[in-house]
Amino acid sequence: MLKDADLDHLHFERVKNFKREIKHEEFRKRIILQGDLAAMHSPVDVINLVASGRMSGSLVFSRRSLRKLLHFHQGEVRGASSNEASDRLGEVLFRFGGLNRAELEQASHEARLARRPLGNWLIEREYFNQEDLYRFVRHQVEEIFYSILMWQEGNFYLTELDPASVPSPLALNTQMLLMEGLQRVDELAYFREDLPHEFIKVVRSQKQPTQAFTDAQIKVMSLLSSPRTIESLIQSTKIGGFETLKTLHILFRQGFVEINGSALPEPEEEVVLSGEIREFHEIVGRFNRVFAEIHLKTAPNGHGDALANGLSTFLQYYGFTDLFDNVGFTERGQLDTQQLFLNLNKNNNEDRCIFLSKALSELLFFEMFAARAWLNPQEQQALQQLANDLGIEDY
């Protein structure tokens, strides 16, 4: 029979194998529950267990470098957080029309300099009142919750909850979220039969409507006078990714929208699986947040080409030449996602996403090291903090 000390030892041995995860604050608390998602069949079963048992704690879902947390109090969802770039409050504000891109970048920059959470800073600067911000924070928590339901692999841990660590003062019914989330999962699978990924280009057809469009349909149609990718459309509608895809699919089925090719040429042999496309965007999105911040800080000092020069030097000494072949930085200081995806498609590494994370991590820390010549210590520290907040580590 195991004694308490033996159980504690087993918990310690189990967790210490995940070296990247143990660095995070929630793993310093006692672990109540842990396991493998594949063995539990789906995240739904894990969440149901916590909700039906009226448990309290931080439920951590981890998959490679990605981490998403749901905070529970007596089975209710009280908040959520994530290191995925698209889950951050600023990106949610942008996708749902709270801020345009220029406003978001300016507010994020000011909040980091002031060392204030973005939400608090936005209220203090009177971008929003408490009620408006609450609505966007709720969107953020719901989007994180629904995205977790899509996971098919990874690890989960339920740790003790520190009420002071909960990032949002919500109290959401878990069963209602599960019902809505499962309906979304089913609908997304249906949408993907016709629109399998976000690289597809769509455009308005010549068909004329015989009855009035809904507000969402009007918005989508107004943006499709010329071909654009679904990814670009989602970023422009300001109604959220799921509602955009749902509206687009209805218009496609009714014949008002048609497919107009893809942003990616068809490879001779498909290497990157469809399930990896989303993870690719998650990984590159996090790194591009920091690259863009480096550019924002160095360009005003007359070093707008710092990132490009850094990449050129990096490839001479650190390898990864095939992955970064013909890859450059955009005017906003972000890597060319399309070319990077094409190059990764040709890679035969057993785990392409880990290979990609390692390459981007080495490039980022090289760029951050080079940028020290033009940044003051506070700016350097802010960059490092941003990388840490996004879960970027030196592999």
Salient structural properties:
12% strand, 3 domains, disordered N terminus, 395 residues, alpha+beta, 53% helix, Outer Surface Protein A, domain 3, 17 helices
Shape: globular
**If you average the pLDDT, what whole number results?**
82
The low-pLDDT segments are 1-22, 265-274
Order of the strands making up the biggest sheet: 1-5-2-3-4
Alpha-beta content class: alpha+beta
What count of structural domains? 3
**Approximate strand percentage:** 5-15%
Count of alpha and pi helical runs: 17
- CA radius of gyration: 22 Å
Number of extended strands: 8
What is the distance, rounded to the nearest whole angstrom, between the alpha carbons of the first and last residues? 39 Å
The biggest beta sheet is recorded as: 5 strands, antiparallel
Share of residues in helices: 40-55%
What is the N-to-C succession of helices and strands?
Answer: HHEHHEEEHHHHEHEHEHHEHHHHH
Can I get a quick summary?
By secondary structure, the chain is α+β, with helices and mostly antiparallel strands. The chain has helices at residues 4-16, 19-22, 37-40, 43-52, 89-95, 101-114, 118-124, 130-148, 174-194, 215-222, 230-237, 241-253, 274-298, 306-318, 337-345, 352-371, 377-389; strands at residues 31-36, 57-63, 66-73, 76-82, 155-159, 200-204, 228-229, 257-262.
